[in-house]
Structures are given as structure tokens and as C-alpha cells.
Amino acid sequence: MTTPPTPPPEPEEEPHFASWALPVSKLKTEDISSDAINLNVNGRRLTGPIQGFGQMWQKTYKVRLPGVSLTPHEIVDVWKKNFGSFWPKGNRFYGSVIGIAPGEVAVLNLAGPGGVPLVSTGVLVIYADDISFSFMTPEGHTFAGMITFGVAEEEGAPIAQVQLLVRAMDPIYELGCRVGVVHKMEDVHWHATLTNLAAHFGVRDAKVEQKNTLVDPRVQWGEAKNVWHNAAIRTGLYMPVTLMKKVFKRG
Amino acid sequence: MSQAKVTVSVRKPNPQAGIIDIQGEVTATAETALMEAYAQASNGNTRAIVLNFSGLEYMNSSGIGLVVTLLIRVNRQKQRLLACGLSDHYKQIFELTRLNEAIGIYNTEAEALAAVGG
Is A187 a residue whose pLDDT tops 50? Predict the structure, then answer.
């Protein structure tokens, strides 16, 4: 009797490889709450800062958390688990049951003035480790690009940060940016989020610092066609149908 | 602020191309080193910058953001940005983030330089 040859050991995967999502051709939502208005995500491609239309901005929002004795890892863990709860009122983040992990798709229902549902869109979690995580946006989202969240120790206190590297997705959103409306909505959103995060850890009246850098002043006319997928327009068009479906389902 | 865990060096194999060799970790802390290397690699005749990732140990999403920022700077100088020496894992990440649509990806430095015509 012969002993079968021992198979060679499987090469061990580098631990940080698991921090990244695998490439996806089109997004697909799974296990999303039925409360979500789930439009403009399924079947959409991801878009990075390269694929957007407008000027490229890097926007960094930071809040210091003095007196918080938790490690960055512990703070990020809380942030991931309660991500949507820190958003300003009216805005909803519908993650999968797995939560914020590489490869997971979430649906966003973003509110306009007065809390009226304005845009249904989504994100893919492209990266997540112990101290940071990143999203990329699908076609139709306000911005094409990446949003990175993280916590680091600086001068004896944790600092929570949100950093966007984005272009307005299409000419309509870019117009909104140029007149200041879209940038203002974005700024209000992340200032409120970081203030709420700080309050969760007991830091009252936290001051959010913001730095904007214009990375590329040019627009990309070749991407003007992105307007076809504009999630704000499509949400507006589909909203009556979606609401009627919900009413009939309840009935 | 965390210390950069990256070493970058610059070579000019010909007047048209500059190669930036990257060893270690590409994260937000690598920004100064990478941008200084680009300034050194680029001059009036440079048509292409090749990022040699064969010594890359780790890159996070901030590192990808850094490559995007570098790409914009390179393109504004009417130069091309190429990459070589990426492992299969990082090739996948360039595909995920759609950076491969803007940066030429080559297996070897020789292939990248041939694409530049150098």
C-alpha cells in the first residue's frame, strides 16, 4: 500500500488582502431592509474619481475627541456598527446584515431640505481594516469617487476623519457644486456626522475642521453622458411609483 | 502623525521616462515621498512616469487616493502614468477602483518602457 503524496500547503493569504473587496462589474444589493427606497444601485457600475465629470476635490473633515480613552480600533468598530445613526436626521444608510465589510453594498436614502427624500443611491465598501474603511460610489451618485473614514491618534487624542476624493458625477451636479448648493449639503452632512460621533463618545460642542483642496480644476466633457444615470432625477421620476407600491404592499 | 513606511527612489533610464521604485507601504503617509520623487523624475522632456511596484508590501485606500492625485498631476504635465510590478492582488485593486482605465499596467519594467517607446 502506498501513501498518497501529501498535497503542497496552500499559500497563506496575506492578512491585509482580506481588507479589500474583489472587483465587481455591476453592483447588486442583498439583504437590504424593505424600508429602503432601493433605486439606482442594482446593475450600476462603480465610479472612481477618474470617471466623474466635474472638478476633482479632496475634502477632509476632522474632529478631535479629547478625553476619549478608547483606541482608534475601538472607535472605528463603534463607527462601523452604528454608521447610519450618526448621519443627520432624514438621511438613511441601509447596510447589509453583514454591515461595513469589504464587498458589501449599502443603499443610501439622502434627504433634501426639510428632510424630504431626495436621492436614492448607494455605495460599495471597497476597503475596511481595523482603523479605516472606504466607500466607492455607483453611476448616478452625486459624486464619483472615494470616501475614506478613519481614526488616528494625534497629540494624545483620537482624531476621527472623513476624506472625500471626488468629482461631481455629471454636469447637473457640477452646476450644483459651482453655485455652492451641493458642496454645502455635503459639508453640512459630514460636519453633523462627526459632531454626532463625537457626542456619542461624550465630547460636547466638538469643532469640526475642514480642508478643501482643488486637485483638478478641469471638467471632463467626455463624462457628461453620466447624466443619463443621474440618481436625483431618477429618484424624482420613480418616487411616486415606489410610494404607491409600498402603500399597496401594506394594504 | 504616523511615520512613512515607504522608500522611493528615482531612475531615468532615458530622457523620455522616469521610473519611481516603491518599496514598502503606500498609505497617506507616503504622500511627501511620492510627490518629491515625481518632481525629481519629471522634467521638460519626460513623457512618461513609471511606478515600479515590485517592492510594494501594502497599499490601503488612502494609498489609492494618492495614486489618483499623482495621476492628475502627471496628466496636467501632458505625461502618461504607467505601473509595473503589481502583484495579482493589487492588479485586482486597480481594476476594482477603475484606475486601470487611466494607468497603463505592465508586468515588467521593460514592457512599460517599451510602451513609452524608450
Answer: yes
B70 to chain A: nearest residue by CA?
A215
Q: Which residue of A has its CA nearest to B92?
A: A23
Q: What is the pLDDT of residues A88-137, one digit of tens each?
A: 999 999 999 999 999 999 999 998 777 777 899 999 999 999 999 999 99
Give B58's contacts in chain A (Cβ within 8 Å): 16
How many other C-beta atoms lie within 10 A of the C-beta of residue A47?
26
As a whole number of angstroms, the distance between CA A229 and CA A44 comes to 9
First to last CA, chain A: 71
With bands split at pLDDT 50, 70 and 90, how would you rate the model's confidence at A1?
very low
Domains of chain B (ranges; CATH) run 6-116 (3.30.750.24)
Q: Does domain A46-215 have CATH number 3.30.530.20?
A: yes
What cell was used for A115?
Answer: 428632510
Within 8 A by CB and 6+ apart from A202, the residues are: A67, A68
Q: What's the predicted TM-score (pTM) here?
A: 0.91
- Distance, in Å, from the CA atom of B107 to the CA atom of B117, rounded to the nearest integer, reads 16
Tens digit of pLDDT for each residue in B1-22?
A: 567 799 999 999 999 999 999 9
Query: Which residue in B2, B3, B96 has the most chain A C-beta atoms within 10 A of its own C-beta, making it the best mutation to test that interface?
Result: B96
Q: Closest Cα to residue A126, out of B97, B81, B32, B26?
A: B97
Model confidence over A25-46: pLDDT tens digits? 999 999 899 889 899 999 999 9
What residues pair up with A138 in beta bridges, in sequence order?
A: A46
